[in-house]
Amino acid sequence: MAAMSAACRALLIAATLAGPAQAVTHSVSDVAGLRAAVAVANPGDEIVLAPGTYLLTAGLNLERSGTPAAPIVLRAATPQQAVLRSDTLVMIRARASDWRIEGLLIEGVCAIDDNCEHALQILSGAQRLIVRNNHFREFNAPIKGNGEPLGVGGSYVFADDVLVERSRFYATRPRLTANPVTFIDVVGGKRWVIRGNLIYDFMKAGGDGISYAAFLKGNGSDGVFERNLVICQRRFGGGERVGLSFGGGGTGAQFCEGGSCVTEHRNGVMRNNLIVNCNDVGIYLNRAQNTLIEHNTLYNTAGIDVRFSTSSATVRNNVLSGRLRNRDGGSHSAIGNLTELPLATLQSWFADPAAGDFALRDGAMLVDQGAAGGSTVDDYCGDARGGGAPDRGALEYDRTGKCDTVLDREVRIFRNGFEAS
Prior knowledge:
Elements: H1 2-18, E1 25-28, H2 31-40, E2 46-49, E3 52-56, E4 60-62, E5 72-76, E6 82-86, E7 90-94, E8 99-102, E9 105-108, E10 118-122, E11 130-132, E12 135-137, E13 143-145, E14 148-150, E15 155-157, E16 163-165, E17 168-170, E18 182-187, E19 193-195, E20 198-200, E21 210-217, E22 220-221, E23 224-226, E24 229-231, E25 240-246, E26 265-266, E27 269-271, E28 274-276, E29 283-286, E30 288-289, E31 291-294, E32 297-299, E33 303-307, E34 312-316, E35 319-320, E36 323-327, E37 331-335, H3 343-349, E38 350-352, E39 357-360, H4 397-400, H5 405-413
Parallel strand pairs: 1-2, 2-5, 3-6, 4-7, 5-8, 6-9, 7-10, 8-11, 9-12, 10-13, 11-16, 12-17, 13-18, 16-19, 17-20, 18-21, 19-23, 20-24, 21-25, 22-26, 23-27, 24-28, 25-29, 26-30, 27-31, 28-32, 29-33, 31-34, 32-35, 33-36, 34-37
Antiparallel strand pairs: 14-15, 38-39
């Protein structure tokens, strides 16, 4: 008995000393190494890609979960120096929770545009995914969030609490497809945050020709668009381009959260966004209930549409050249906005709004002229708004002194991108 007790004590001590598995850094320099690392990654591990180009001729599946305290990280060793290329329909499918994807250049290289649909498809199990400081180009819908039927009866399950921030989305030419072209295309899910991104030159050359920078739809809820710079037409024109939307073009009920899309989105927030050069509306609400649209600046767009009877919005302290209107039974309350401003007026107020440069020339109608009492406490650059009357629009000029909207996105965040700024 004495010998057995000693052995048991030794096993107990060894197990105690071993503790949980230690996080591992997987240094990767080729596609085989990337696939191997993804297949064995554990909570807290980092998969670090050496500079170079990685061609994925088959999809990559993220199926091992991290934890909220110990996510699995997929990142470039040097930001913007690892290029993932894909000629497949979907480059990466995420079904596991608590991943972070950071610092990558991600490019579709399909000979036929129909064959490069998504850089990243975010599916049912991908809770708390963070997509940060990446560049995406040459996909129809680089970010695609949607549910999938699971379990008995096949009820759709969706990813919640996803963050997409400080990333660039663009195409170098029109997408030659009739498939949906929306650079952040999200169906279902709760509490998605789309923050601090640069989105431009999304154009669908086939089908109905309608494209969006980004939308949340499919009976999702509590989504946030904030501090994004959307330039619908930057390098080339054409098509019908919409800026940011809750509801998009609508969703078939079978694909919606809870099996119903009476509302496409609930309790959404759009704040501190700059949206320019859209030949359709800059902000579109389609069956979007209880939406807050606050402190956005829209230049050279058709304005803001609140559409259908289930859409309702509070619209506060926005500045826009287009109209603010209800359509097909939509409703809104408005306070502190400047609407239907001539482009020449906005050009006299800002340095170069068509290029996204909103440095201030004349702030008489903006600085300290907004309605007090809103819930937006910061501005486009993340600086605090002062007490009392805030500035109208996305920027709080009297608090920041200067917020260089072009350099903030093009240099500080997006240096070393695919194309020169």
